[in-house]
Write a structure and sequence with these properties.
homodimer, alpha+beta, 8 helices, globular
Chain lengths: 257, 257
Amino acid sequence: MDYDLTEFRALACRLADAAGAAIKPYFRAQLDIQQKDDASPVTLADQAAERAIRDILHRERPKDGIWGEEFGQHNITAEWVWVLDPIDGTRAFTCGKPVFATLIGLTYQGRSVLGLIDQPILSERWLGDCQNGARFNGEICKTSDCVEFQKARFATTAPEMFNGEDRARIARLTNAAKIMSWGGDAYNYALLASGHIDLVVEKCLKYHDFAALAPLIEAAGGVITDWSGQALSHKSAGDVIAAATPELQQAALAYLR
Amino acid sequence: MDYDLTEFRALACRLADAAGAAIKPYFRAQLDIQQKDDASPVTLADQAAERAIRDILHRERPKDGIWGEEFGQHNITAEWVWVLDPIDGTRAFTCGKPVFATLIGLTYQGRSVLGLIDQPILSERWLGDCQNGARFNGEICKTSDCVEFQKARFATTAPEMFNGEDRARIARLTNAAKIMSWGGDAYNYALLASGHIDLVVEKCLKYHDFAALAPLIEAAGGVITDWSGQALSHKSAGDVIAAATPELQQAALAYLR
């Protein structure tokens, strides 16, 4: 490995601190909700948080690329690119639920090397990379040892993600799993990294939704791929399966076929 | 009114304290999940929390009735009856999500007079009754002034609640609302009482799931009925609609017809 992530970890934490400080005043406050072209909601909080992160990156890492949900792409052919979702779970955020998250991913030469999931209201932070493992608030965390679908705690965000045959596939998973929990967005993947959820299956995520997830899940001992078992990249369609173990991933892939 | 709720409010808070103390050691711990006859999950935490509440009631209010999710009915023809759901949202609880709740309802001569929703991990408590209004952590709270469905934040727990034609009805609501948020269980009703969610629609709740909700929602200025607009009671089928305003309730009822 020809790079050292130590300073990047510290910077990612400062970026999350800045985003959290920008978000907190808006949580459970009166807030205008706008609709974007893709029909997803956005608020001043989403924008303020991404701006806070970008301000620091422009100042301290001017050569790095940025790929953000709210303010688009900048220099994304750079060696280091930051992939940002300032508030993943804006719907939950606007309902006053403290289960949204700030997502910060980092790629080196196109490969995801670091991922951070931050819940600023609860002061919960998951950070994973290939050099320092996966950590929840600084302590090592790992996925569960669940290998059987019938014993799995399965989570996914919303039925609207799934149409036609996919809806039937998810219903099969829902019926077979031990526990089914709806809602959660990226917070589900964070709980998977800590061993509290065993499986997450979702559809049509954007790159900024999942770029931060893979380094964390993999460092925690889990598996994260698309629905055909392929590694995720910025070219992925965004159909994501994350599992605590390879065995559970294979069992879930069989249900999805 | 021929009764004073002051002491009952204090007692309800002590019951919730005891339940929270029983629950906390189990949150995000390794925990066996059993399935009940109705296929819903139960853990040692649910049982320990209800037992903690019942111990206090047996000691301090031996003549009162108890209607609990885990340990059944005791003397429910008494003047005062406590209706208990020690962990509403056991699925969320087993996934490590801090959005489950302890529900404590109190009826006087069959009428719901006090309701408490407690989230012990976040130290969040909603308490409502007809004499002291609705309070969140001691401060007065109220529902939003949302009257239009197109501006509403709509929440419901799980698509599995709805079958056949009901599923199409909920899809119509989901498409028409400004924001749709899945998951949440009783926590959604608590957020409605604080003005962060505008509408909750659910199906087939049990009496222990909704007995604590009506006194809180009504004291906060909202409306809660069944799907035909009738008041909820222990005889209700458990099809619940809760809205921030009467206008929004009427608009939602029209979608459900």
